[in-house]
Amino acid sequence: LRKGWSAFGKENRSKIERVVEGWLLSAGVSFESQAVVDFYVVDIKVGSKVIECHGDYWHANPSRYPDPSTWGKAQRANVHRDKSKATLFANRGYEMLVLWERDIHKNPKECQARISSFLGVQVHP
């Protein structure tokens, strides 16, 4: 974790993170944005549950970028980091939900249903 990353991240959250945060706020869910868990920064933390909002390009959404041989250096690095993050969280007792950019924009009701099931609360616009 780079010094100052967490503070920098709170002010520069992605559009998709802000959309999901809006859903959580509307549902009255308390959460922490850009929370530090060990040496990783997570998008949204609710107790021992983590919601990651992955950009399709940067995290190589498999429905859009199914062939790893076409990934760029940043995509490969991010996918590797995402796998490491998921393993560490599982080993530390955290549960993680990944929402993809395309789904957040094109299937918001499905994403809200997934969040509702994951957190055990009703999330809707």
Explain the layout of strands and helices.
Layout: H1 5-11, H2 15-26, E1 32-37, E2 40-46, E3 49-54, H3 73-91, E4 95-100, H4 101-106, H5 108-119
Parallel strand pairs: 3-4
Antiparallel strand pairs: 1-2, 2-3
Give an overview of the whole structure.
The chain is α+β, with helices and mostly antiparallel strands and 125 residues long. 45% of the residues lie in helices and 20% in strands. The chain has five helices and four strands. The chain has a four-stranded mixed beta sheet, with helices on both faces. Strand 3 (49-54), helix 3 (73-91) and strand 4 (95-100) form a beta-alpha-beta unit. The longest helix is centred in the middle third of the chain and has 19 residues, at 73-91. The protein is globular, with a radius of gyration of 14 Å. Mean pLDDT is 91; it is low at 1-8.
Indicate the overall shape: globular
Stretches where pLDDT is under 50 for at least 5 consecutive residues are 1-8
Strand order of the largest sheet: 1-2-3-4
Number of strands: 4
On the 0 to 100 scale, the average pLDDT is: 91
Largest sheet: 4 strands, mixed
Taken as a percent bin, the fraction of beta residues is: 15-25%
Number of helices: 5
Helix content: 40-55%
SSE order, as H and E? HHEEEHEHH
Q: Supply the helix-strand structural class.
A: alpha+beta
How far the N terminus sits from the C terminus, by CA atoms, comes to 34 Å
Gyration radius (Cα, Å) is 14 Å
Supply database-style keywords:
5 helices, alpha+beta, disordered N terminus, four-stranded mixed sheet, 125 residues, globular
Give a quick summary of the entry.
By secondary structure, this protein is an alpha+beta fold.
